[in-house]
Amino acid sequence: MTRKRLIPPLVTATALMLSTGAAAHELDHPAPPYQPAAPIGTGLNSGGPGATWKLVTTFPTGNPHTDLDFFTQGGETYASVGTLAAGPNGGGQTIVQLTDRGTVEPRYVSSHPSASCISRPDAALGLQHDVEATPKGGVLLNTAAATAAGGDAQLLVDATDQRGRCHDQGVAGAVDAPRGGLELVDITNVLRPKEIGLTSHIGESHTVNVDPKRPHIAYSVTSDSVNVGPAPEYKRQNEVPGSGDRYDLDGFEVVDMSSCMNFPALTSVDLRRMLCRPDVYRYRFP
Description:
Strand order of the largest sheet: 1-13-12-11-10
Radius of gyration: 20 Å
Order of helices and strands: HEHEEEEEEEEEEEHE
Number of strands: 13
Strand content: 25-35%
Helix content: under 10%
Shape: globular
């Protein structure tokens, strides 16, 4: 799907295009490197009566974790695991390789420290670093998608639903910080993931999903709810000046990431950041 083909159905349902981007200095920040921790015990829950399990290995990161996604590169399967709130041990996205030449041989590969900074403990459930990889490659999807795009994964899309993320900090870390959104992390070199783009959304980003057929399209979904009323106007409260709901989104947003993908192999990180300008289209429910 190209940008021109994306616009018409959204315009008919009230769409707003937002330009977005981030300077290079906002996308790198000093963070402690990931340090391997001691392995945990093997006394894990193993299902009900008659269930048998074989523990392959564990990766005790010392960080609290949330959503994860799988992807492929060079015929091997990987997983990226997001951090819940702040993760002092290189927290954000932890990338592990699950196979080696088709054999299950898990190993730690790299991490992206999008959760290694001053944060807001009161916003922990919103700084959940939900993650989607794109393209999906040959991994098993949660629904039938015979025409899903193949190819090696190029981006991790890291979603946060609150202020206080590392790469657009406010005063002293979290005061007056921009609202949450998506962080686009280039993983074409999976050993050195690099953030190349950033979006901020009025409704923030509770969950992100990538279109398996169109790997440059991401759907940013908020956890907001919007009330209607009171009588007799019955206005949506996000349309009432001064309302506590004025920044809540009654819909979702579509992000076109095509400018952030399919770079020639030798393109520098700085040039990728300069060219990565995702477009955001807002859809409001009728």
